[in-house]
Amino acid sequence: MAGGSSSTPWAGLLAAWLGWNAGFARVAPANPPAASEGSPPAPAPELFTTGQVRCLRIELSADALQSLRDAPRVYVRALVREGDRAYPDTGLHLKGRSGSFRSVAEKPGLTLSFDRFSPSQRFHGHTKIHLNNSVEDPSYLNEYLGAELFRVAGVPAPRVTHALVELNPNTSAGRTGAFTRTTLAAGHPGG
């Protein structure tokens, strides 16, 4: 159609993309579901809406590191720190498939399950987050842009933000790197 129309789906997608501020969208999840009676409250959206790049320090014992080398998808216990807050006994395993999987000696993608070994533990209201290593996306923006575009189109999508992650920072084998941090949005088919 020549000239297009401002009511096309592309107009909404373009508006979302142009609404960025300093490279980070500040869009709250659309229509978050209400918590049902007796269920825990929904996680607060501030983890994904402030534009702040959070720093996470993850500490693993020598035994946990060896376990991840031997069986990368089996949960081990980790200590996760964010500022002065500590999350002991957090479940951690490596994630990724053929293109993005990296060993614990490289820049691994991680799943953190805060309630795996401590059932009441939450990270900003979340029980689980995924730290994607973005090894296939040097811009660190593909996942972020894709999720925002799906959300604007009314399709449930993961919430995405960025984090700086230090894995065993006080050891000679320590690793530091930027990651995208995601969590499944409430109502997402996978969550």
3D structure, described in words:
This protein is of the alpha+beta class and 191 residues long. It has a domain at 58-183. It is 18% helix and 27% strand. It contains four helices and seven strands. A seven-stranded mixed β-barrel has the order 1-2-3-4-5-7-6. Helix 1 crosses helix 4 (142-152). Mean pLDDT is 75; it is low at 1-7, 10-35 and 183-191.
- How many strands in all? 7
What's the oligomerization state?
single chain
The strand order across the widest sheet is: 1-2-3-4-5-7-6
Name the structural class.
Answer: alpha+beta
Measured distance between first and last alpha carbons: 39 Å
The largest pleated sheet is described as: 7 strands, mixed, barrel
Fold topology:
Blueprint: H1 9-18, H2 46-49, E1 54-59, H3 62-70, E2 76-82, E3 85-95, E4 109-113, E5 128-132, H4 142-152, E6 159-167, E7 175-183
Parallel strand pairs: 1-6
Antiparallel strand pairs: 1-2, 2-3, 3-4, 4-5, 5-7, 6-7
Index terms:
191 residues; 7 strands; seven-stranded mixed β-barrel; disordered N terminus; alpha+beta
Brief write-up:
This protein is an alpha+beta fold. It contains four helices and seven strands, in the order ααβαββββαββ.
